[in-house]
């Protein structure tokens, strides 16, 4: 099983490689979903890949955002630099760009990003046919669906096991985009989900907390189940995390993978928690239907409690704070001090050790006595973790015989290289070169990735200058590195480059639609020139049949009706949808790639959930059999046709947990669902929930502020009410 680690900067990259990652994923300075990370460049990607390959570590480049038409040339140039650097694979979200890369770079290896929302067998099969080698499954994927994908496809399966867990369904969060203009699908998410929210029932304030902040994920204890289910790759989240965090998580999972029975899972989790955790870990993810993913009390790194504030005294223009601690702290440590809901972050400068064992630190903030002291970062432990390096053990065989050139053989695994001195060796006038002298010079490998494991010498009484020994050592190191890289590259597919013909120019018919949940949504609406997209709250044969019957009773033709398919559905729920469609035989709006399984059976429109952002993607979907395209709500569509939402209350998030259960504590047997639950942020933006149900309940987060825009495309009016 492959262990895949994040790298948001050089330090994290080296930490991942040194601590045992099998592969590293990273982004360049554009086209990746973590634009706030330091990232890498087209100038240094070759060096990065070469270093990783020396350790037989794969490099996956993230090009996992939606691409605008005007960016395609630069996008291709970025990928071209990575192809020439011998990058192993590319994690991609945009379907149009994926198909363009397959044409432009034959034999390129593509992994479907979690942003593509693949979470069931139907979606996986669609992408397998489209040329993907691996699917990075949405975090919402159930264990039963993982097993189905393994049994019925040849795709590699990648699954998140550690790190931050998005509260919204993968790829379909538009909160940051529509509220602040910073799109997660464009790599600029502001993580508004991590802010505190006031919770209202109507106008009644119920509570305040981090009600959209998901617990961090930790599935270390479930590795045997994931292995048995057929997962090929364990993915660690964290391209915005510190190098020390990456190092520790990789080290802990490496140990668990190598010897699960001998690993103290709780101890390893505690080590990870010290470096970053939002309280208790989510140890289930969505492997089963899980409601308990939110921790309303914590939205950031909690740290570990280590003591109390005993006293605070003014000292000149700052405060002297006395702490009673159960652990030693030092300069450059980071603390959080908490009391009665108040929180203070303090960086440790000078530390005065008092005779009674207490310590004094200094701060510009007046800290209340009685605060609990949480350790957020220990500089000593960080340095200990960050200073660790892993070297490659090599064997040297040195031969120095009279009248012959000296020979140095270096072996690393199956790779062997030989170098020779420039001149034959002459007889020594006194004592010849000794094994001790050879060992001293040949073991000087401190500026390389190698360390001498074994040395054998075959010597006669010859003279050899120290400088020539050093030259042989340098030559054999260069030759060995080159041979390791050559051996590694021989295993890679030989990616070719074809010329790109330029942007796709196309025209799609402009169609107008109303989105409705019920017949009453159509009151006083002029239907002339409009088709209807049905958005039911219950996906059952009876409820949808009743809705269609009521519409046809009003004289509406079946040919103008489309069923809006839900963004998320397990494979078991896909079967329910299949039955509904077979019964009603109306058109569909596809909002997940799984829905393209029906593209040849029913009139299909590519929906908002597919995030169509450029002409290439639109054309691919049309080629697959879609009759029309609805543009992403984050896209300002050109005058090329298709349709776009112009008015209504679109889903800003699709949630697979139950906010009602999170707030009230009720369970499904005592459902307390109502449509008047409201979350309000610090800027008084208000959000409500819309529920839909297939086999399970799902929720959409809606802004109470109406979405409106002007477009030259076909127009879509969302007539649904709260």
What's this model, at a glance?
By secondary structure, the chain is α/β, with parallel strands linked by helices. It folds into five domains: 2-165 and 214-275, TIM Barrel (Alpha-Beta Barrel); 171-209 and 650-705, no CATH class; 304-386, Beta Barrel (Elongation Factor Tu (Ef-tu), domain 3); 392-489, no CATH class; 512-648 and 709-718, Enolase-like C-terminal domain (TIM Barrel), CATH 3.20.20.120.
What do these coordinates show?
The chain is an alpha/beta fold and 722 residues long. It has five domains: 2-165 and 214-275, TIM Barrel; 171-209 and 650-705, no CATH class; 304-386, Elongation Factor Tu (Ef-tu), domain 3; 392-489, no CATH class; 512-648 and 709-718, Enolase-like C-terminal domain (TIM Barrel, Alpha-Beta Barrel). 25% of the residues lie in helices and 27% in strands. It is built from 17 helices and 37 strands. The strands form six sheets. A nine-stranded mixed beta sheet has the order 30-29-28-27-26-25-37-31-36, with helices on one face. An eight-stranded parallel beta barrel has the order 1-2-3-4-5-6-7-11, surrounded by six helices. A seven-stranded antiparallel beta sheet has the order 15-14-18-12-13-17-16. Helix 4 links the parallel strand 4 (89-92) and strand 5 (110-112). Helix 1 runs parallel beside helix 9 and helix 14 runs parallel beside helix 15. The protein is globular and about 110 Å long. The model has no long low-confidence stretch (mean pLDDT 94).
